[in-house]
Write a structure and sequence with these properties.
The chain has 157 residues and is an alpha+beta fold. The chain has four helices and eight strands; from the N terminus they run βααββββαβαββ.
Length: 157
């Protein structure tokens, strides 16, 4: 299995948007979750928000998305952007690839965080298995969707 990451850039976004959004709907089957991901991706593109998105591919077939962004005023801390795949067993492997990519691009990389929505407590154990810990500080002040997210998880390097 040849798992790889393919950058989604401002330049290629208009060309891949339709395929990207169809993939988002397959990964996050609950409408609220897929709408949230699409909204964030659009905001990233339209507002030139920092960070990157990537397609996750197996043998050049796109099976998921992932990405990251730097947290302002938190040196060395990056957020995980919509990490998900449609092929069972590839989530951790693609996360490992993303971590390698962040390390190549971001010299001060120390922490990776994940925000988890209320009602998705099942994700806590998955992310714990991937090396994240539940952060008792709760949702940070900078997060605009405090009514959507309920849990903060952190992985340190």
């Amino acid at each position: 299995m040849d798992l790889s990451l393919e950058p989604i850039t401002s330049e290629n976004y208009p060309l891949v948007k339709e395929e990207l959004f169809l993939l988002v709907e397959k990964i996050w089957t609950k409408k609220e979750s897929s709408d949230n991901a699409k909204d964030s991706i659009e905001r990233w593109h339209k507002n030139s928000e920092s960070g990157l998105y990537f397609f996750v591919s197996i043998d050049k077939k796109r099976i998921g998305i992932t990405g990251y962004w730097p947290i302002k005023n938190a040196k060395g801390t990056f957020g995980l952007r919509h990490h998900g795949t449609i092929v069972k067993g590839t989530g951790k492997l693609s996360l490992d690839l993303l971590i390698k990519e962040i390390r190549k691009r971001e010299k001060e990389f120390v922490h990776l965080i994940e925000l988890i929505p209320g009602g998705r407590e099942d994700l806590i154990s998955k992310f714990k298995g991937w090396g994240f810990e539940l952060d008792q500080k709760g949702i940070p002040e900078w997060e605009p969707k405090k009514d959507y997210y309920k849990y903060l998880m952190t992985r340190s390097f």
